[in-house]
Amino acid sequence: MKNVILAKRYAKALFSVAGETDAYDEYSRALHDFSETYRAYPEVQDGLTNPVYPLDVRVKVMDYLVEKMGVSGVIRNFLNLVVQKKRAAVLPDIAESFQALVDEKRNICQGTVVSAMEMGTELQGKVRAALEKITGKRVILTAKVDPSIIGGIIAKVGDLVLDGSLSSQLLGLKESIKGVNN
Questions:
Q1: What is the dihedral of CA 57, 61, 63, 64, to 10 degrees?
Q2: What pTM did the predictor assign?
Q3: What dotted CATH number matches 2-103?
Q4: What's the mean pLDDT when you consider all of the chain?
């Protein structure tokens, strides 16, 4: 919980700076790319967060990464500040919080739809339209396949979960039968 609060604080600060030059997309992309790099390479995590390394070494690691990624001056300063404040472990959470703020500003929400088999684009469009009608926001939908749901779909947008999977219906039926016998 502490990391989420910290992440939101840093994300809000960067968001206000991004608003001055309308650099939301640039900052979001840079944070996302950095977050992916951080998660993908344990040596990057170690180099930025391990207290065995002196702070100046961790700052040099960040400088090297920032230079290789070719990010702007504001993001460079922001990432260096995060390392100097010993908050590098929170960077993936900061990236998510920043994206959530950008999405909120643009009346967008991220959603996922899980199906037992690959969904066609037409069906995805219908699901997206239904979710947009329910939420009143534009929905960016990510489709996933999970054969364990047997059939149907599970749609998630924010806190809203619509579970129309066959596996949950069978589970509900099972619980109903158990309740009748008791």
A1: 130
A2: 0.77
A3: 1.10.520.20
A4: 92
pLDDT at 181: 58
The amino acid present at 159, given as its one-letter code, is D
Q: Which is it for strands 138-145 and 153-157: parallel, antiparallel or unpaired?
A: unpaired
CA dist list (Å): 70 to 56, 61, 93, 165: 21, 14, 21, 44
Distance CA 107, CA 100 (A): 10
Residue 162 DSSP code: E
pLDDT-derived band of residue 29, with 50, 70 and 90 as boundaries?
A: very high
- Compute and round to an integer the Cα radius of gyration of the chain: 21
The full DSSP string for 99-144 is HHHHHHHTTEEEEEEEESSPPPHHHHHHHHHHHHHHHSSEEEEEEE
Parse the chain into domains and list their residue ranges. Answer: 2-103, 107-181
Q: What is the pLDDT of residue 179?
A: 79
- pLDDT for the residue 1: 54
The pLDDT value recorded for residue 88 is 93
User: What size, in residues, is the chain?
Assistant: 182
